[in-house]
Amino acid sequence: MSGIAGRFSRLRSVYADAERKAPALARRFAAAGVRPQDFKNAASLNRLPVLKKERLLELQAAEPPFGGFLACDVAELAYIYVSPGPIFEPSPASDDTGHGMDMMFRSAGVGPEDVALNTWSYHLVPAGLLFDKGLRAVGATVIPTGTGNSELQAELLTALKPTVFLGSTAYFATLVEQLRKSGRTLPDAWALRHAFLGGEFGDWSAKRRAIESEFKLKTWSIYGAADFGLIGYEVEGHSGYRIHDDRYVQICDPVTGAPLAAGEAGEIVVTTLTPGWPMIRFGTGDLGRAINLAADGGVDWLAPIEGRVGAARKIREIFVYPDHLKALAARVDGLAEVRLRIGRDGHRETITLELLPSGAKAVATDAVLDCFRMLTRLRADHLVTIGSADAFTHAGPIAEDADARNV
């Protein structure tokens, strides 16, 4: 089946099964007065309110571990990822493509002749393993380095001659600096043909063009989420992201949840069409626009991501929520409130924590740093003690310096 009937037929089948197995999903349908058999077109799907990512975090905390949304037996899971929050993201054992990550590699022409240096984390969060699975699905050989140890990783670029790099743009720049410090001439010293880089706000396209020109390789980006993997991927000769066939994507008003027309900016809302951990009308918190809509109302092509519509911010590829800062203040003695400011030092995002003490006694800075790292897995760069609540330098719990995204 194809077109409107085909996609919505699959949607009805997946969610009819999920409704029987996932009590929270059944409650969500009941509250909206809908059943899976009602989902025959976009209008019927839109009767279901958007589920925000922050709300999923709350629901999992109230009904651990999965908030009642798991639609398969635990025995059918291969992995359970743990993103900061914490948010638990189950991954069914039936997945052998990295939740669609193979699509971006096939589109880029990566295959059995390629060797990939995968610097994304293999620890707790899904990035490293999902990319690994996608690479193996297209026959590529993987060097599973994960994060850190930049001196060794720089050497691996010249010793093992990988043709593919995967990692953040900032980490790519770090490895380049390491090699240049050791006297290597780039790109002569390596064999890279592709760099799959983590996107950045600001003039990301210009930065990619500069990397491609300087290092004689092709850069690629995807749009995905820890909750369900790939959402969209790039295709040579096209702008934006082509949407994964198993994702029904909408651009919605962040307040009302109503779908918006192509070209209008709104929250990216995703419905997955895969069993086990199905997410329906899930608000990612990302701000985007549709380049083109399919006949069934879903996004065909998605423009580059423009920012965030929620209170969370992505820092060094990790989401930080206001609740992290509330928890930090509650757990450290003598601390009344914490706010976070994002800055930039060269290629690297910096984190400044502004601390408001609850009394005259000095706050233990080591306790603040340790607790923040435990909650978010990020290292803070600077601590600033603020004399009064009125003296905070920015509004809101998390904010960015003017040049933090000017990349």
Features:
407 residues, alpha/beta, Rossmann fold, GMP Synthetase, Chain A, domain 3, five-stranded mixed beta sheet, 28% strand
Task: Please tell me about this protein's structure.
The chain has 407 residues and is of the alpha/beta class. Helix content is 29%, strand content 28%. The protein has eleven helices and 23 strands. It has helices at 3-21, 23-32, 42-45, 53-62, 101-108, 127-137, 150-159, 169-181, 204-215, 322-331, 365-376, and strands spanning 51-52, 77-83, 87-92, 115-118, 141-144, 164-168, 194-198, 218-220, 222-225, 229-233, 241-243, 247-252, 266-272, 282-288, 290-293, 299-302, 307-308, 313-315, 318-320, 335-345, 348-357, 382-385, 398-400. Strands 1, 12, 13, 14 and 17 form a five-stranded mixed β-sheet that branches. It has a five-stranded parallel β-sheet with strand order 5-4-6-7-8, with helices on both faces. Strand 2 (77-83) and strand 3 (87-92) form a beta hairpin.
In short:
This protein has 407 residues and is an alpha/beta fold.
CATH architecture field of the largest domain: 3-Layer(aba) Sandwich
Radius of gyration: 22 Å
Mean pLDDT: 90
Helix content: 25-40%
Distance between the termini: 44 Å
